[in-house]
Each structure stands twice: as C-alpha cells, then as structure tokens.
Amino acid sequence: MTAAEARLKEGLAHHRAGRVDRARECYQALLRGDPNHADANHLMGVLALQDRRWKDAEALIATALAANAKVAPYHDHLGVAFRNQGRLADAEACHRRALAIDPKSAAALNNLATTLREAGRIDEARDCARRAMAAAPRDPVICANAGTLFLETGSFGPAADAFARAAEAKPDVADYHEKMGLARYRAGRVAGAEQAFRRTLELAPDHAQARRWLAETLLTLERPEDARAEARAQLEGHPDDEQAMVLEAVAAWRSGDVAGAGEVYRRVLDRAPANTAALTGLAVGEASRGDIAAARAGYRRVLDVDPGNVDAYGNLAMLGAGELTVADAERMAGLLRGGKLPDDQRAVLAFALAHFLAAAGERAAAFDWYRTGNLMRRAHLQAGGHRFDAALHESFLDARKQVFTPAFFAARQGFGSDSERPVFIVGLPRSGTTLVEQILAAHGQVHGAGELRDMAITALARLPALTGGEKTYPSCVQDLAPDAAGSLAEAYLARLAEVAAKAGKADARRVIDKMPFNYLHLGLIHLLFPNARIIHCRRDARDVGLSCFTTNFTDAHAWTTDLGEIAAYINGYERLMAHWRNVLPGGVMTEVRYEDLVADVEAESRRLVSFIGLRWRKACLDFHKAERVVTTASRAQVRQPIYARSVGRWKAYGDELAPLLDALG
C-alpha cells in the first residue's frame, strides 16, 4: 500500500466514524500532493454536500470526474449537488450516467428517485425507490428513504413495508418504528400502527410525536380513555404541548366527557388564543349542543385567524343552508385551484361548495361538485387501503344468515342478560336514526348515548378471543359459552352505565345505542340481550342513496363515494334485514318509516315510546329543544321542528342518479 493509499484509507475511516475534520485533513493532504487526485476531490465534494455547500461540491466533484469519468458515485453525487441547486434535468442525467456504469447501484437509484420526486414524476420515482430496495434489501438508509418517498406521495402500504425493512435491519432506531407506525396508520393498519408507536416509545420514551400519534391511533381504535392517558402522559413531561392538550380534549369528548373537553380546549386558548384546533373543538361542541350562533361565531373566528382553514368551511356548511357566503365560495374555489391540498381536504371544500350551490338552487352545478368531492374522497380512502368489495361484503352478510338461525337461538335460551335497559336504533346512514334518538332522548327516563362502537368491537375483537381465536366472527359465536355471553353482556351494560353517568343521566331506565351499523349485529344483540328493544329506521332507498352521496362522512364508508356501490350496499342491507325479520321473535324489533314519522310525528313517537316500555311524555314532541349533545351529520337538522322537505328529494336529481336508480333492488 502506497503512502497516498494509506492516507486515503485513513480519511475514509475518519469520515465513516463521523470525524469529519480529521477526514478533511487527510483529503487535503492528498490534494496538496496531487491537486487532481480523483478520490480526494470526490470525497471533499461529499463533505461539501454534507455541509450543504452545493456549489463547492459541484466544483470538487467535477474535478474528480475530469480525472476519472468511469466511477458511478462521482456522477451520482454530482447529481445530488445539481438537484439541490434546482437543476433537476442535469441531476437526472448524472444519476442515469451513474446507473449506466453500475446498473445495480442502490445509491444511484435512491438519488434518482428523490430527483424524480422533486420533478413531480411520482410513478417513476416510486419505481426507482422499489428498484433501490431490491438492490439493497438490508440497507436501512435505502429502505427508509424509499419509505419516506412512499409516505410523502401517498403510497402508504409500501411505505409501511419499507420502514419495516429498515427497522428490521436496525431495530434500535426509534424513528424507523415511528415512521412505520405513521405509514401503517395511514394505510389503515391501525393495530400494527399501535405496536410500532409503542416500540418507538420503548426505544425513546420522550419521543413526543410518537406519543401523540399513539394517542391518535387509540382514538381510531375507539379507545378514547387509553388515548386520554397517553395525552396526559405527554403533558406530564411537556405541560406546554398544545397538540397533546388538543388530543386530550378530543379523547375526553369521544369518551363522553363533554365538559372536560371544553375545559381543556379553553385551557389551550388561554395560552394560545389563535389555536385553530381548540377554536374548532369548542365550536363543534356548541354545534353539537344546538347553539348554532355560537358555533358560527367560532368557525368565523377560525377563518379570521386562518382564512385558508378548510375544516372551518366544511363545518360552516354542516350548520345548514345560508351559512356560506359568495365570498366564502370564491375563497374555497381559489384553494382548490391552488392544487396543494391533499385529497381529503379537497373533498371537504368540494362538498362545501356543493352545499352552497344546492342552497342557492344551482342543483346541476351542486351535483357536479358532489361528484367531484366523492372522487377526491375515494382517492383518499383508496390510498389508505379502504375499498368497498361488494362480493366480499355479500359474503359477510351471508355468513350472518347462516349462523343466526331460529335453531341457533332455540339452542341458546337463557344466554346473556335479561336487562331491558339497552335500546338499539339501527338502519342505513341518513335514514332518520338521529331524529328517532332525539325524540326518545327528550323523554326524561331515556339517555341517548349516540353511536357507540362497542357492539362491533365485541363482535370483531372480543368474541374471537373469547372463543379460542381460531374462528372469526360470526362463526365463532357458535362456540360462545353461556358464562362468556353473560360476561360480554355485563361489560356492555357497564359501558352504558358509564356513558349515561357522564351525561348526568345515571338513573335513565333506557339507554340508546344509535349506531346504524349495528344492523349487522342484530343476531348477536338478541343473543346477549333477548329483552332489549330494536328500532329499525327505514326511508325511501332513493333518498337514502342521494343523502349518502351528498354527505362527506368522517368515517371511511368507501361505498358512499359511488352511486352504483351505494345501490349494492343498500340491496345487501335489505336482504339482511329481511333475514332478521324472519329469525328474531315477535315484539323484539319494530320499524319506523321516516316518511310516516314526518307525516305524523306524534302518533309515531307515541308508538315508539310505548314500544320501549315507557309512558308517554309530551316533551318528546319538543325534541328540537332538548339540551343534549348530538355528534352525527344530522346535528343541525334535529335542532329544528319536524319537516318533510327531505321526502322525495331524489326527484330533483333523477337523471344524475341513474346509476343508483337502475341498480336498486
């Protein structure tokens, strides 16, 4: 080994160990002996790249290339220098020259991916990132860089897989686990996201962003109390963390502690009066309590602080017709033209514009924006792995029909609880479930708990675990032991008691679970609560379909973004409800048609109150005056006296609804 080779080797060792000053001394010594030394010039250029001295890097690496143009990393690193000066075409050419010399260079593929990403050529960038990982599947930096590119370009599943590779190669790097959790969360792999965030916190207990993401993940998993605990844990060490305060408030709200949520939001605003998340949270609370004027003022305050706040426009639109102005519509259109918003935010604006135009009588233009909003929402949902598979959904429905038969129930007499406290209101979204709950909740002996996820969690998570974990729901129900059924029923009753107590209705004789999608679980509900009453809300399927298509749901519900899929979903629902009518004993379930309810609210209300075993109270007719929190998309409508203007609404859009009308059974 020559003296020059030894000096180069020494410099590289210092460089790799992070001793850049010592490395620089070695390279400079080589250059004093030979100003055109290719490796020394190249490595001095790499140091310049690390110092963000792009012009110096360009000059040094160009000198290296003048001495030896056959080394792939020289071309590749010159491309990095060009990219950081905005010379993307020159950068791409350099990366491709490097790959012509070494087609399997993972570094060059990785850098080309980054350059193509900056040039807006997303598909090509993703392809290069995949090729880079294939060339270096165990290189954590290459895999993490690919994961970052996938994450930033909305390819969440591949991002999660890339960060998983990086974390496997270097399991003690907390940031790899944190990014893996974020990618899993956005890909809809929520349980896996929780695991990744918890591993992040094991490695780095003070990782603030990971704890915030963990709290958000727990909210998505319908575990608001756990989310609240994580937010509070973050605040113990970081009492000024406004994001954690907002998460605590959201968790309090979701767990039924409405007053507690308001207190936390106000605490945030005491510190930061312009915090738009806290302003929005308080305004949503006012809207849910029926104080439309206060909600309006809150959303307008958000727009005073941030005129581009997308959610404020969406929330104003939800307050009802006339809330958005022409100036609002112009600003929303401008935000959409800007093209920098993600699909879910663009969908919020599209739906808000549609509501504005519909209120102004511009129905054709409004429907165009509803269609556009659904396309945007659909793209966002698909990026997160949410798609409606009609055949798969039908198989889920068929499985319920096969399990829950008259013979099944006859063999399980005495299972569950004999409590009459739970009342279940089911139906399709936008079928009148919120209105029925509001009417009954105006009765002094009834508490409306809103849309609880507990029955779905019981069915899809707790039941399989209780029955050995080998079968999924619903087939696992066949292995449920009587004592286990009793335990599930008691746990659900305890949850109802907790929710009612938080609302100051601990003595309520009936507690309503108004989750519409519990129609999927009526067999399980009857097994656990054979004396519970079920109210099935029905409405003209054409009006339901239109209303679903024109609502920007906060939950996934991917089927609501396409008129044909809406029809397929409704048809499947009708078939399953026909099955429940056949297998559930008489007196357990009653049906109420939205059209009948609005035509004679007193007669139908009296019938429903009697059905749940209570004496009539006139307060049920003043449901719109009731002081209670309503969190669904119908919260504005149920604050008004009964009206019939939504009956037959589909007729105004007949031609546009052809895919729905043609496919409905």
Number of strands: 5
| Strand arrangement across the biggest beta sheet | 2-3-1-4-5
Question: What can be said about the biggest beta sheet?
Answer: 5 strands, parallel
Q: If you compute it from the alpha carbons, what radius of gyration comes out, rounded to the nearest whole angstrom?
A: 30 Å
Number of helices: 33
The N- and C-terminal alpha carbons lie at a distance of: 84 Å
Mean of the pLDDT scores?
93
Envelope shape: elongated
Helix content: 55-70%
Instruction: Predict the CATH topology of the domain at 390-663.
Output: Rossmann fold
Low-confidence stretches: none
The structural class is mainly alpha
What is the class of the domain at 390-663 in the CATH system? Answer: Alpha Beta
**In what range is the share of β-strand residues?**
under 5%
Please explain how this structure is put together:
By secondary structure, this protein is mainly alpha-helical. Among the domains are: 206-306, Serine Threonine Protein Phosphatase 5, Tetratricopeptide repeat (Alpha Horseshoe); 319-386; 390-663, Rossmann fold (3-Layer(aba) Sandwich), CATH 3.40.50. Helix content is 64%, strand content 4%. It has 33 helices and 5 strands. The protein has helices at 3-16, 20-33, 38-50, 54-67, 72-83, 88-101, 106-118, 122-135, 140-152, 156-169, 174-186, 190-203, 208-220, 224-237, 242-254, 258-271, 276-289, 292-305, 310-319, 326-338, 343-359, 363-383, 390-403, 406-410, 433-441, 454-466, 482-502, 522-528, 541-549, 563-583, 594-599, 601-611, 658-663; strands at residues 422-427, 446-448, 510-513, 533-538, 589-593. A 5-stranded parallel beta sheet has the order 2-3-1-4-5, with helices on both faces. Helix 9 runs parallel beside helix 11 (174-186), helix 12 (190-203) runs antiparallel to helix 13 and helix 19 (310-319) runs parallel beside helix 21 (343-359).
